[in-house]
Specification:
CATH topology: Nucleotidyltransferase, domain 5
Number of domains: 1
Strand content: 15-25%
CATH architecture: 2-Layer Sandwich
Order of helices and strands: EEEHHEHEHEHHH
CATH class: Alpha Beta
Number of helices: 7
Structural class: alpha/beta
Largest sheet: 4 strands, mixed
CATH superfamily: Ribonuclease H-like superfamily/Ribonuclease H
Helix content: 25-40%
Radius of gyration: 16 Å
């Protein structure tokens, strides 16, 4: 799974937010991937309206390609989007690039929602096992580290989760072939 989110003061120069920042989920993307077959079996993609912000920051729109019009037309409130995500995941382990679990928990707190997901696997923490510099790539660019040909918009959660799946599949099924 992967998230796209906003935070106060989000600009190209503001740097990565921390847990102290009010991170607000805008997109949740996930796939069900069969690692034995190397095949995506199902996908999940939902836009959620931020808890506090009414307008998307211009930098977020530039980065993700998600417009205010997209959000106004397709967005659901976070509690509804999160519940659909929980239903999609069921009791499966959830692979994420880094700390998206923390951002989900933070957003559940905004709405007083129970955070019942627990089995998260951080891909970034595993990269050194495959000889990959964990600070050189993001979820959306990980396919490049694996030498996988892929198109799509980096910083779109669904693209980024597919990038992770393609890279992890290659590394887990072909040894140290990078």
């Amino acid at each position: 799974m992967d998230l796209e989110y906003i935070y106060p003061g989000m600009t190209a120069d503001s740097g990565r937010p921390t847990a102290r920042d009010r991170r607000q989920v805008v997109q949740i993307g996930a796939i069900l991937f069969d690692n034995d077959k190397g095949k995506e079996e199902a996908s999940f993609n939902v836009l959620t309206r931020p808890a506090y912000a009414k307008q998307l920051p211009p930098f977020f729109v530039e980065l993700t390609g998600i417009t205010q019009e997209d959000l106004d037309r397709e967005g659901v409130d976070f509690p509804r989007g999160f519940q659909k995500f929980v239903e999609f995941c069921r009791d499966r382990p959830i692979w994420t690039f880094d700390k998206d679990q923390e951002v989900l928990q933070q957003n559940c707190g905004y709405f007083g929602l129970d955070f019942s997901l627990s089995d998260f696997i951080r891909v970034k923490a595993k990269l050194s096992e495959w000889g990959i510099d964990p600070d050189k790539y993001s979820s959306g660019t990980l396919y490049r580290a694996a030498g996988v040909d892929m198109s799509g918009h980096i910083h779109n959660a669904l693209h980024d989760v597919r990038s992770m799946a393609a890279a992890v599949y290659k590394w887990e099924n072909s040894g140290q072939d990078k």
